[in-house]
Design goal:
alpha+beta; 3 helices; single chain; 41% strand
């Protein structure tokens, strides 16, 4: 996963990232007819301290809607767009199973024998992440915060002493 993608996810922008992927797949002449938005959003008030680098203040759940109007389906098979969505979601949305989100849905509405409108809808659930910032716009728990990705620290190894069994190292160089 690229740094840009992880930052977008950390900020709760699955919709924006998938929009960018669809823009990449679509022919240049179709990019202006791609639109996306959020519907039916909820904020799950479930905060979680993620250590010294930041917090998840809540979880955002919403229905993402993507529409490509006047898709020239004789030039670009709609299956390519649908496959791009399926591949992107499977590669980048690590929360789908955890929150048991439904599979994406789509509808094709023919306009004439050369074009159709393609609408894709899918639910996303993402953490709303904050970092402490002295002039941040958000007041919470007596501190100032801003919406932003935070660094996630992962241990390379740990040293353990368990009872009288001695010193044990987990992970690290072999």
């Amino acid at each position: 996963m690229s740094k840009e993608m992880s930052e977008q996810q950390a900020q709760g922008y699955f919709l924006h990232a998938l929009h960018a992927e669809l823009n990449r797949v679509l022919p240049a002449k179709c990019r202006k007819s791609l639109d996306s938005w959020m519907e039916n959003g909820t904020i799950r008030l479930e905060s979680r301290n993620m250590g010294p680098t930041g917090v998840d203040v809540a979880w955002l759940t919403y229905q993402a809607v993507f529409i490509v109007e006047q898709l020239p389906f004789r030039e670009l098979d709609p299956a390519i767009v649908l496959a791009a969505v399926a591949a992107w979601v499977q590669e980048h949305d690590s929360f789908r199973e955890q929150f048991e989100l439904a599979d994406p849905e789509y509808a094709v509405t023919p306009n004439d024998e050369k074009s159709a409108d393609l609408e894709i809808q899918l639910a996303f659930t993402e953490p709303l992440r904050l970092i402490e910032h002295p002039s941040g716009p958000i007041n919470w728990l007596g501190k100032r915060w801003q919406v932003a990705p935070y660094e996630i620290w992962v241990a390379d190894h740990i040293d353990m002493n368990v009872g009288d069994t001695g010193h044990h190292q987990v992970g690290g160089p072999a």
